Amino acid sequence: MTKTETPQSSGGDVRLHGISKTYGSFTAVQPLDLTVPAGSFFALLGASGCGKTTTLRMIAGLEEPTTGTVELSGRDVTALPPYKRQVNTVFQNYALFPHLDIYENVAFGLRRRGIKSVKKQVEEMLDLVQLGPMARRKPQQLSGGQQQRVAVARALINHPQVLLLDEPLGALDLKLRRQMQLELKRIQTEVGITFVHVTHDQEEAMTMADTVAVMNGGRVEQLGAPADLYENPGTTFVANFLGTSNLIEAEVVEAGGEELLLRAADTTLHLPAARCSASARKGEKVLAGVRPEKVALTHADDADGIAAEHNRLPGRIKDASFIGVSTQYVVEVPGLGELAVYEQNIERDGRLVPGAGIVLHWSRAHTFGLDATQDIQAGADLDEEAA
């Protein structure tokens, strides 16, 4: 199957209308409305137990929704069994037939449908996943990444409108997982089929997907392009689950213009009004957020050289960890606790060691604002639990 033979329109859209799933008194998925555009790479991202796999299984027909409907390409398929839906699923364990070689594993779906001439389609599919020379090997003779590509080829040869991927890279080591992220994205771009990918791995979702739905407690917390979710989180859960955020409790002391003036401990901070998702009237509390890599450290002796328009906080380095591409600092800020700073190792200042007095500073434009009534720690540790 070449790119010209399988145009971008070959994917189907997925529309979920008020679907939910309960098991007795437990609600796995709250009533959910979601649209996956045709031909897109869509990720359902969240920690274990958030409802992402249950949602995927309802799309596949492996779970029956308690309420709501599932539409594929404008057709209501809620009552249809899996084999009558134009979807195929790739699971974490690949589910390859160990007694069949790679060629026959890929050909299996075609042969089961009574198609006699499979050679051209199988060879084209093996070329797509770059496994042509290994066609006559058995699954156990392949690496985990190669087996995963066979599973994708076996699913794609049936020409589904939607390919569902349930933690497909979870069994691979880190280096191979990163290679396969790029490989899956390449395959999706070439075939143009709609991919719906379930994962707990933030990097995986952001590397591969056009659109990410961050799920928590059976609900979609936020949906959008990876960069937008990262730069403009709408909740503390998204801010903490997608990477790391410094969230600073502050009070609005001046509002009404393009910038909000905040008081945090004994320091004034500036927040662009357009980047605050919370109500921000004078006297109200907000959480001022900034990502660790947006923050710079300057030794206290050189503080006069910091740009006047930067937000700044005085502090003392508590810990410094060299991790190659960057150094990760933990800084104690009086009245605000510990904040994280990630600095690239370009020109390292030898004075920036634990115990040193420093000034944290960052561009006002990199500050975002969140509702202070939320749990400030929401989502902070779930990535480790899910892994």
UniProtKB/TrEMBL annotation:
Its EC number is 7.6.2.11. CDD domains: ABC_PotA_N. Residues 14-242 form the ABC transporter domain. It catalyses: ATP + H2O + polyamine-[polyamine-binding protein]Side 1 = ADP + phosphate + polyamineSide 2 + [polyamine-binding protein]Side 1. Keywords: ATP-binding, Cell membrane, Membrane, Nucleotide-binding, Translocase, Transport. InterPro entries: AAA+_ATPase, ABC_SmlMolc_Importer, ABC_transporter-like_ATP-bd, ABC_transporter-like_CS, Mo/tungstate-bd_C_term_dom, P-loop_NTPase, PotA-like, PotA_ATP-bd. Belongs to the ABC transporter superfamily. Spermidine/putrescine importer (TC 3.A.1.11.1) family. PANTHER family: SPERMIDINE/PUTRESCINE IMPORT ATP-BINDING PROTEIN POTA, SPERMIDINE_PUTRESCINE IMPORT ATP-BINDING PROTEIN POTA. Part of the ABC transporter complex PotABCD involved in spermidine/putrescine import. Responsible for energy coupling to the transport system. This is Spermidine/putrescine import ATP-binding protein PotA.
